[in-house]
Design brief:
The complex is a heterodimer. Chain A is mostly helical. Chain A contains 15 helices and no strands. The chains are: A mainly alpha, B mainly alpha.
Chain lengths: 351, 334
Amino acid sequence: MNIVKYAILRIVALLMQIIGAITVIIVATTIIPLDPTVYFTVGDVSEQNGDLNQSTRSPEEIAQFRREIGLDKTFFQRYFDFLRDLFTRGDLGHSWYDNRKPVTELYFNAFKTTLNVFGLGILIFTILAIILGILSARRLDGTLDRNVRLSTSLFYSFPPYVLGTLLIFALNNYFLTNLGSSLQENLESKFPINLSSRPYETYFTAFNDGLSHAAVYQLLPIIIVVLIYTGFQFRLVRIYMANVLNQNYIRTAHAKGLSERTILIKHGLRNALPELITSVATTFPVAFSGVVVLEKVFEINGSGLLLIDAGLHFNWPVLIGGAVIFTALNAVILAVTDLIINYVDPKLRLS
Amino acid sequence: MDNIYVKNAFYKNSIANSLRTILSSTQGKIGFSLILIYLVMALIGGLAYLIDPPGYQKPTSWILWSPYYLVFVLPDYPDVGILDPPNADFWFGTDYSGRDIFSRMIFGTTITMGIAIVIAFIVTLLILSLGLSSAIYGGAWDSFITRLSDVLLTFPTVVWIILISVFSTPFRIGIPGGFYLAVYLGMSLVMWPLGARLVRSEVLEGLDAEYVQAIDLAGGSRYWIIRKHVFPKVIPTIFLLFFYQLSDIVIGISLLGYLGFGSESTLVWGSDLAKSFLSENIQDEWWTVVFPSLFIFGIVLGLTLFSDALRDSYASKYRGGIQSTLHSSLGGDS
């Protein structure tokens, strides 16, 4: 198939996927038997199991709030307005709280924070997993392979939030008992915060007060991301590479007397390239899911915390906007991967 | 008569065989015994619940003696302190409101394993019915199912989890037991597309095989072909999917608790972890963080090791594409 024709088809499919996702979310926010203004009228409901009718606002206030956020419109009006705004102006609406800021602006700033904190970690684990996977695929069940598999399967079994909690706990204990006092005095002399009053919050305050240049605080999220997701991607890379190295042409290359290096790089890597790209694309959304949760653990004001807080406050525009952004990101990555693979692998273009 | 005997022997043999293969590897042994331990704990928690549903404020020993107390009267225990470190009476210590952490973890095991197994069964049913029907009937139904799973697969997992938790809130607050219903519905909706797609492609592959076409020419009915020659090939995939998805579901529902969406009495592991994490002087209360983490870690590790060993046993049995297909499709949870 012609690559241009394939690209057009793939982009149409991508748009259909995104519109489908938007439809699913907006229908869900409409049919849910809950008044979304409950955070405005009652407050935080996540902690209480009590009744939702103890309003602290007057009926006029509530009516005006509903009018301002456009809840008096019908479902179809809201749905088509949303699609029109999104595709003509790239506008996802305004948050109901946070001074009615535009959703796109909120997420733009949040994504910058997310990338600042986790970007390096994602880069490191991708490279590390590919290198380890290729090296272990050379000798399946060899020493390297067995050791890497064992250690990664241990960390792989920790959900990110559990490992994050445990590591913050361990690291904070270590620093506060061993070099705690000196580090603490040092930080307190530079910045107007009192660390000793709530020692456990040092991590969170450090980030949110702009202390993020302290290397210790930057390292932990990176370490966690690398520990967990190296194992995930390593498994994919290892098996793809092993499949390629099992082929007959690799054996022929060995028989011809080519060097190990040439075989691995010229014949192995080149043939495994489409699948390596797939493994990166498969891992990315999974790692991104983990990052969202880790932001909740570390209380980093990134895109994940924004989405979770919007969920806890029933802040529909931010929730819908976030879900659309994450979903679109995921879909775009998959589409781009398909296109790259189609470009790289001539066999696929023929069929 | 003869036929039935042979058939039963075959099935028994194949299950026993794969179990033997699993237990021959260290990974499989560890995984299998961890799963057994958790199932036993879930059973104990269920029995204890029959005696005293909110019974956390007692020493640890009562929950282990719960089968005994089903018959005999439960003795009165003295009051307990808040945030006691682990000791002979409270093996894992007590939490911020004086509840025995060991008992809470055991109740958490019952609830989590119960929910997870129910969801895994619902998902397996959905996968089988939707995957098989879309492969067999084709046409409009097939393209509808494919498009739907496309859309559902586009959502990253965590976005789904957050959406589920948001949309389960009114059921949690308003209707007793409604929270479980919402979680069942939401999680099964997330989980089916991946497996259904896998089953669909395997059935299509099976229907395409030359010997199946030969049976078709020889006059075998479509029902016969699917029952005898296509369905048996799908069974390993179904088993594998069940165990892989079980660990995803356990992680998912603990995450719901961690994010603060379940109430304290429902999603115990995650919500206890999050609650103790928020405490002010947590350095001195390590037991409130470490034990919930270990409980989540243990079951996920057990399920991962067991399903890896299961996959390897199938891969050694069916040489060919199965290992790579399953690897690539079961590796991702997105």
